[in-house]
Design brief:
- The chain is α/β, with parallel strands linked by helices and about 250 residues long.
- The protein is built from 7 helices and 13 strands.
- The protein has helices spanning about 10, 35-40, 60-65, 80-90, 100-110, 125-130, 195-200, and strands spanning about 20-25, 45-50, 70-75, 95, 115-120, 135, 140-145, 150-155, 155-165, 165-180, 185, 200-210, 230-235.
- Strands 1, 2, 3, 4, 10, 11, 12 and 13 form an 8-stranded mixed sheet that branches. It has a 3-stranded antiparallel sheet with strand order 5-9-8. The chain has a two-stranded antiparallel ribbon with strand order 6-7.
- Strand 10 (about 165-180) and strand 11 form a beta hairpin.
- Helix 5 packs across helix 7 (about 195-200).
């Protein structure tokens, strides 16, 4: 039951080249940076990554992207990262753009054993009809396009069938965990981290604070330990602010 491993390098040591990863975080909030850095240091490459976004230039998942260790991204938001845009438009990176709510539900469904679900989001667009550029060729033409998806009518509305996402590994950052892997997230870090924890066949959680079993109020637990296989304590993990806004000195409140 003790799922604690000594460090991030040990936690990710068995992630092979070509693995699929569900990586938590929203912008720069709740990003499992220690695990990402450990993957970078290990030289792991050709990764298929599912995450809301891909970090920023040279931080978060941007570290792996900049080193060309990511071959495919499934994301909902890809702004704030010039290298991402360059690799995508030059044909170096395959990208599956997915509406944010759909991405969240695909991850949740994967962790819940639900193979697919119908949603109205994307009906009548390239999301359902196909044709979204997944990968470009060197000459700027579309080398790989998204396929059409099954649609069905319920009542007076059309819906598109979206498949669940299940990945080889899940990497998440939690505020608090116990040695059994029960996780508590802090505010906005709760957006995608719990879903990525559910979607990974092997989930690794880096945590700010490690407590003993029984110390957590069960009502506070956001992800039960059954979804988590490894816990690594990273009390000094770096955290960044994506956009710092301050009032000018002497300005009005």
């Amino acid at each position: 039951m003790n799922k604690v491993v000594p460090n991030a390098a040990t936690a990710v040591a068995d992630i092979p080249n070509g693995a699929s990863l569900a990586v938590g975080g929203f912008g720069l909030c709740g990003v499992p940076m220690a695990l990402i850095q450990a993957l970078y240091d290990a030289g792991t490459s050709n990764l298929s990554v599912v995450s809301n976004n891909c970090g920023v230039d040279e931080w978060g998942l941007g570290v792996l992207l900049y080193a060309k260790r990511i071959s495919r991204m499934t994301s909902s938001y890809v702004g704030e990262n010039k290298e991402f845009a360059r690799q995508y438009l030059s044909g170096e990176l395959e990208v599956e753009l997915t509406p944010q709510g759909t991405l969240a539900e695909r991850l949740r469904a994967g962790g819940s054993g639900i193979p697919a679900f119908y949603t109205a989001t994307g009906v009548g667009t390239q999301i359902s009809d196909g044709g979204l550029p997944w990968r470009y060729a060197d000459d700027g033409s579309v080398a790989v396009a998204s396929p059409p998806k099954e649609t069905r009518r319920f009542g007076d509305r059309d819906y598109v069938l979206e498949e669940a996402i299940r990945t080889d590994f899940g990497l998440v950052h939690a505020a608090v965990a116990d040695r059994h892997g029960n996780l508590v997230f802090h505010e906005s870090a709760r957006n995608f981290n719990p879903l990525c924890a559910m979607a990974g066949r092997v989930t690794i959680a880096e945590v700010d604070e490690l407590v003993e079993p029984g110390d957590l109020d069960p009502d506070r637990v956001h992800v039960p330990g059954v979804f988590v296989q490894r816990v690594v304590h990273v009390p000094d993990a770096e955290k960044r602010i994506e956009k710092r806004t301050v009032r000018p000195a002497g300005g009005d409140a």
